[in-house]
Amino acid sequence: MIYNQWYIILESKELKRSKPLKVRRLNEQLSLWRDKNGNACCIADKCCHRGASLSCGNIIDGKLECPFHGFIYDRSGKVQIIPANGKNKPAPETMKVQSFKTFEGYGFIWLWWGKDDKVVEEPFFFLELKDFSYSSYKDHWNVHYSRAIENQLDVVHLPFVHKTTIGRGNKTLVNGPVVIREKELITFYVNNIVDDGKTVPLKPDEIINYKNLFHLQFHYPNIWQNYISDKIRAFAAFVPVDEENTIIYIRYYQNLIKIPILKGIMNYLGKISSIIILRQDKRVVITQLPKSVGLKIDEHLIMGDKPIIEFRKHRQELIESNSKNSNQMV
Q1: Which domains does the chain have, with CATH numbers?
Q2: Got the DSSP string for 136-190?
Q3: What's the pTM?
């Protein structure tokens, strides 16, 4: 995982006010809960006293109570009360666990994976989507999150993996694609056509007016959108669980129909379509080896893989630039 980044880790609706939630994300066991104001709190899910799972405890006055001996933790991970020592005796400063900064917005909860002095105030999101309605679906894939991301950057696989859905038409010949990177946002423009046996695919710099083409976007570390039209988008967050597992949150966004009943029907149908397409991808991607990607692995990439090449190059740059001052695994 890339250090010093905001990662989407949950949908907001998954974290209730009434009880803590235990999840594994970014190779860590985490305990999340909501404080008295409804804000998301996140600390390591292991009591510093005897190692019990804190997420099995209760929320007491907006703080987290260990189920074993009743130690009370605040959102900073520090023990506030040790019942056996009495309420009036302060807990030692050493009695604490790691805490993680969170951000909540657009129906998601983000976690800051990095140093506190490097934190960016707010994570990136495709802000135009805030005016869209959406339906969502959550799926578990037995792959590293980088493999799941690359599948959505792959413009070559459509007529083979999705031949009954979005890949209909047997458009196997790939022009370009054109890939533009602006800081941590990658936009790639796609033009697949039927191979007549005579046409030679255009190189990226030979494509005129590429901005008029169908395009998709990825923003590091883990969000993507398919710009289907001005009023319809597909969105995905690729959430790292550990080195071999990923949770994908897929959303169908639309701003076409706003009448409540019809909007609900369209969003539901969009979700069903997204599930079908995602499962077509999953069937193949979970077979890929190795389960994670790197800049130099045993693969022979082609021109049509340009979005994947750019993703790997910049991902490696981010890993190297952010790992110099940390001991975190990447």
Answers
A1: 5-118 (2.102.10.10), 127-323 (3.90.380.10)
A2: EEEEEESS-HHHHHHHTT-SSSHHHHTTTTTTTT---EEEEEEEEEETTEEEEEE
A3: 0.94
